[in-house]
Amino acid sequence: MARILAIDYGTKRTGIAVTDELQIIASGLTTVNTKELLKFLKDYTIKEEVELFLVGEPKQMNNTASESEIHILPFIDNLKKEFPNIPIERVDERFTSKMAFQTMIDSGLKKNQRKNKALIDEISATLILQSYLYSK
């Protein structure tokens, strides 16, 4: 089997998580500068087989699209052009940042470590991926 890669897209930084080859365990991979995201994905897919891209879908409480969706849709178009053979699915990402922050607290990270926004993005991507795996 190939891996599933989850993307928590942001205008500055993007968190990335990936499954193992058996698609059982979701692990944070990294956070990359969004300007370098497509290059990172190209390099990664050369080394590892990716079966599916999951892209977080930010929604409002009333289930309508969040304002940040205007930045994500052009990225998804570029992703489709660069990787026409890898399907893309969207996953509701409501509360993932808050859950990521709580995860950091629960794991005992000190206050100054919890200010690491890149780590929050990576944990958020992992939560997106875990929710997808649980729903399968």
UniProtKB/TrEMBL annotation:
<dbReference type="GO" id="GO:0005829">
    <property type="term" value="C:cytosol"/>
</dbReference>
<keyword id="KW-0378">Hydrolase</keyword>
<feature type="domain" description="YqgF/RNase H-like">
    <location>
        <begin position="2"/>
        <end position="100"/>
    </location>
</feature>
<protein>
    <recommendedName>
        <fullName>Putative pre-16S rRNA nuclease</fullName>
        <ecNumber>3.1.-.-</ecNumber>
    </recommendedName>
</protein>
<comment type="function">
    <text>Could be a nuclease involved in processing of the 5'-end of pre-16S rRNA.</text>
</comment>
<keyword id="KW-0540">Nuclease</keyword>
<keyword id="KW-0690">Ribosome biogenesis</keyword>
<dbReference type="GO" id="GO:0004518">
    <property type="term" value="F:nuclease activity"/>
</dbReference>
<keyword id="KW-0963">Cytoplasm</keyword>
<dbReference type="Pfam" id="PF03652">
    <property type="entry name" value="RuvX"/>
</dbReference>
<dbReference type="InterPro" id="IPR005227">
    <property type="entry name" value="YqgF"/>
</dbReference>
<dbReference type="InterPro" id="IPR006641">
    <property type="entry name" value="YqgF/RNaseH-like_dom"/>
</dbReference>
<dbReference type="InterPro" id="IPR037027">
    <property type="entry name" value="YqgF/RNaseH-like_dom_sf"/>
</dbReference>
<dbReference type="GO" id="GO:0000967">
    <property type="term" value="P:rRNA 5'-end processing"/>
</dbReference>
<dbReference type="GO" id="GO:0016788">
    <property type="term" value="F:hydrolase activity, acting on ester bonds"/>
</dbReference>
<comment type="similarity">
    <text>Belongs to the YqgF HJR family.</text>
</comment>
<dbReference type="InterPro" id="IPR012337">
    <property type="entry name" value="RNaseH-like_sf"/>
</dbReference>
